[in-house]
Amino acid sequence: MIREIYLIRDTALDAFLVPMFFQSEGAARRAFGDEVNREATDNMLYHHPEHFQLYRSGTYDDADGVFACTPPVFVVDAMSVKE
Hints:
By secondary structure, this protein is α+β, with helices and mostly antiparallel strands. The protein is 24% helix and 43% strand. The longest helix has 12 residues, at 25-36.
């Protein structure tokens, strides 16, 4: 199956976090929004949504193990999904 590669950028660190893999952009947006709105003392996305953005960065084919990476493309920022 082809999975899309997504990255969360932390603007306070000026760095991307560990890649995540989703079936579609919709699934990535939903997971990002859920995490941004998950209240927990150790959840940085919840406490500092102004610092986080979601990017798409290519695909991964789990049948042959091939990554097809692209420069990160902005998808949505955490403030836009914060409830």
